What does this fold into?
Amino acid sequence: MRILWGSCLVLGLVLSGCGKKDDSGKTGDTGKTAKTGGTTDKGGGGGGGGGGATAEAIVGTWTMDAEALKKIMFEEMKKQPGMPADLTMDNPMIQAGLAMADQLKMTVEVKADGTWSSSGTGPEGENTSSSGTWKKAGANYEMIRNKDDGKDVEPSAATGTIKNGKLELQIPEVPFAFILKRA
It folds into this structure.
């Protein structure tokens, strides 16, 4: 169970670090992006993607989908050694563990200028924030975290995919994707 919550906290830190890259694809000063003529110059970064309506799908405010997180956590719990094969979500022990998902809060704001920021509350009430850049990468979005709680950190990447109107975020160190819904 601690591994799952540790993973959730890692996600919060990674997400809050996703940010904006300059037109060369390098992470830079995210406060200096210019808007011109009612559109943004995000260019998609150095990988030859981005821009236009396709990249706009991720833009907006997203919040953690607690019910989806509970289902994912339950599936991960069932994989743990010693768990009964007939384990169900209505088991009181499982419900107690899944109640923590309601305490985990995360809001991610993805801006059209190629930056993002997140804020959240962990299962023990600790507040976190992250920010960084994003760019279109094929059918996905690459989100690079470069700040945690206002401090520079070694950049790290997460992959975002829009599926069924929800943002699925996969962080390399976490064995499952986090699901966010539009706020």
